[in-house]
Design brief:
Length: 100
């Protein structure tokens, strides 16, 4: 006589089938762990991107400020060179007047 079994495959009568569910749970757990690690990597990359972007914006601001300072210093330098030339001419004129 053949036993009535609820198994898909031929197995020993009375075998515990809970291991099949455990395998499914292990697969879901492994997949969940993989997704969590991928999510963590993505979050780390995103935070690094934000940090680099903030650093870049700060560097841009420093460059803008330095450019304006350099332009101001060049203008001041040109003004001082003109003043120096004017004073040199004035000294020469005074020396000529003294020699007279």
């Amino acid at each position: 006589m053949k036993d009535k079994r609820t198994y898909k495959y031929e197995k020993e009568h009375g075998e515990d089938m809970t291991h099949e569910n455990e395998n499914k749970i292990d697969a879901v757990t492994a997949l969940t762990d993989k997704y969590r690690s991928d999510l963590k990597k993505h979050q780390d990359r995103e935070s690094m991107h934000i940090a680099v972007e903030n650093q870049l914006n700060g560097t841009k601001q420093i460059i803008i400020e330095m450019s304006s300072t350099i332009k101001k210093l060049q203008t001041d330098n040109d003004t001082l060179l003109k003043e120096n030339d004017r004073l040199s001419e004035e000294i020469q004129l005074l020396e000529m007047q003294i020699k007279k």
